[in-house]
Design brief:
mainly alpha, Growth Hormone, Chain: A, transmembrane helix, membrane, cell membrane, MFS transporter, transmembrane
C-alpha cells in the first residue's frame, strides 16, 4: 500500500491496541482489587508499570528501529504485548500480574516509538498536524472502546477474560502491520549520521515533557475517574460508560484540533488556550455534581492540543534524526506517565479519595503552556543560528 492516508489508517488501528491494553487495568480496577486484595495505591502502580520500560527502552528503541527496520521492530513489539497479556490472563499471583504488565509495556514502548516515526516519515512537511492528530486519536479511541467493552467482559467472565481479549487484539495488530510499506525514498533519507544538534535535542526534550505532562493530566480522567465515580455510588459499568464520553468526544476533538492548527496556522495559541481550559475543568470535576457536563466539555476541548503538541518534535527532526529524536521524545513522555499514576495513587490513598488525582492532573496540564513558550523560544534561536 502506497497511499499515505491508507497507511495512516493501518498505523491508527495498530496504535489503538496500545491504548486498549493500557486501559485494561483501570477499566476493571475494582475487579482486580477484589480478586487480588489490592488497594488503590497498588492499582496506581500497576497502571504506571505499563510506562516504566519507556524510561530505559524509548531511546534505544529508536536505535533498534533504525537498525532492524520498521516491520521487524513493530512485529516484535506486538509479540511482547501479546505475551504480556497472556501472562496476566492465566496467573492469580500479583507479582506475575506486574511482570506481565512490564512485558506488555516494553512492547508498547517499542511500538509507540516506531509507529510515530513511521507516521512522521509519511507526513513530514505536509499536513503534519492533521496527520499526527488523527494518529494520536487512536489513543482516546482505544481507551473509549476499552471502557465500554472490558468492564462488561470482566463482570461476566472475570479479569482473565479481559486480558485474553487484549491479547487477541494485539495479535490482530501483527497481521495488519504486514500491509505497511515505507514512503518512497525513506531508506535514502535516513542514511545520515543520526545525530541531533544541541538545540534540536533541547527542543525535543521540551516537546517530550509537554506531551508527557499533558497526557498525565488526561490520564487522571480515565485512570482514576471510574474510581472517583464509584466512590459516589456509581456502578463499575456506569462509571466506565460515563468516563468513556471523554474519549469518544476526543475522537472528534483531536483531529479537529489538528485541522484547525493546519488551517489557521496558530497551533501555539490553540494548544495554550485549550490546555488552560482543560486544567480548570479537571479541577472542577471532583467538586461538582455536573459530572456529565464537565466530561463532555473535557472531551470537546481536551483533544485540541494533541496534534499541535505531537507535531512539535517533527519540526526539528530531519529524516536521519527522526528515529533517535522520537526515542528521546518518548523517554520523557514515559517517565512522566510512569510517575504520574503512581504518585496519584499514593496521594489518593493518603487523602482517602480519588479526587486528589484529578487535582494533580490539573496541575500537570497547567505546566504545559509555559513549556510551549519555551519550545518556541528554542526553535526561534535555532532558526536564527541556521540563517547566520
Amino acid at each position: 500500500m502506497r497511499n499515505r492516508w491508507g497507511i495512516l489508517a493501518i498505523l491508527f488501528i495498530v496504535r489503538l491496541t496500545i491504548a486498549f491494553q493500557f486501559q485494561s487495568v483501570a477499566a476493571v480496577a475494582p475487579l482486580l482489587q477484589q480478586t487480588f486484595g489490592a488497594g488503590i495505591a497498588d492499582i496506581g502502580i500497576l497502571i504506571g508499570l505499563y510506562f516504566t520500560p519507556g524510561v530505559v527502552l524509548a531511546l534505544p528503541g529508536g536505535a533498534i528501529g533504525r537498525t532492524l527496520g520498521d516491520k521487524p521492530t513493530t512485529i516484535a513489539a506486538l509479540l511482547l504485548m501479546t505475551a504480556g497479556s497472556l501472562v496476566m490472563a492465566v496467573t492469580d499471583v500479583w507479582n506475575w500480574q506486574m511482570a506481565g504488565r512490564l512485558a506488555s509495556g516494553a512492547g508498547g514502548v517499542l511500538l509507540t516509538v516506531q509507529l510515530t516515526k513511521m507516521a512522521a516519515d509519511w507526513f513530514a512537511g505536509k499536513e503534519i498536524a492533521t496527520a499526527m492528530a488523527i494518529f494520536v486519536n487512536s489513543w482516546p479511541a482505544g481507551v473509549a472502546i476499552s471502557l465500554l467493552v472490558l468492564p462488561a467482559i470482566g463482570t461476566a467472565h472475570g479479569a482473565g477474560a479481559v486480558f485474553l481479549s487484549v491479547g487477541a487484539l494485539t495479535a490482530i495488530g501483527i497481521l495488519l502491520i504486514t500491509f505497511y510499506q515505507p514512503p518512497p525514498g525513506a531508506g535514502a533519507g535516513a542514511a545520515g549520521s543520526g545525530r541531533l544538534d544541541p538545540l534540536a535535542l533541547l527542543a525535543v526534550i521540551v516537546a517530550g515533557l509537554i506531551w508527557g505532562l499533558y497526557n498525565v493530566g488526561f490520564a487522571m480522567i480515565f485512570s482514576f475517574g471510574p474510581t472517583l465515580l464509584a466512590e459516589r455510588g456509581w456502578s463499575i459499568a456506569a462509571a466506565g460508560s460515563a468516563i468513556s464520553v471523554v474519549m469518544w468526544l476526543s475522537v472528534i476533538s483531536v483531529p479537529a484540533g489538528g485541522y484547525l492548527a493546519d488551517r489557521f496556522k496558530r497551533p501555539f495559541i490553540l494548544a495554550i488556550g485549550a490546555s488552560l481550559i482543560v486544567a480548570g475543568l479537571l479541577a472542577w470535576l471532583p467538586r461538582s455534581d455536573a459530572v456529565i457536563t464537565i466530561l463532555i466539555l473535557i472531551g470537546l476541548i481536551g483533544g485540541h492540543p494533541a496534534g499541535p503538541i505531537m507535531s512539535l518534535a517533527a519540526r526539528v527532526l530531519a529524516p536521519d534524526t527522526r528515529a533517535i529524536g522520537m526515542g528521546v521524545f518518548y523517554t520523557l513522555f514515559y517517565a512522566a506517565m510512569m510517575l504520574g499514576p503512581a504518585v496519584a495513587g499514593r496521594l489518593a490513598k493518603s487523602a482517602g479519595t480519588a479526587a486528589v488525582a484529578l487535582d494533580l492532573g490539573a496541575l500537570t496540564v497547567l505546566a504545559c503552556p509555559p513549556l510551549m513558550w519555551l519550545f518556541e523560544c528554542i526553535v526561534s534561536v535555532r532558526c536564527r543560528r541556521a540563517q547566520s
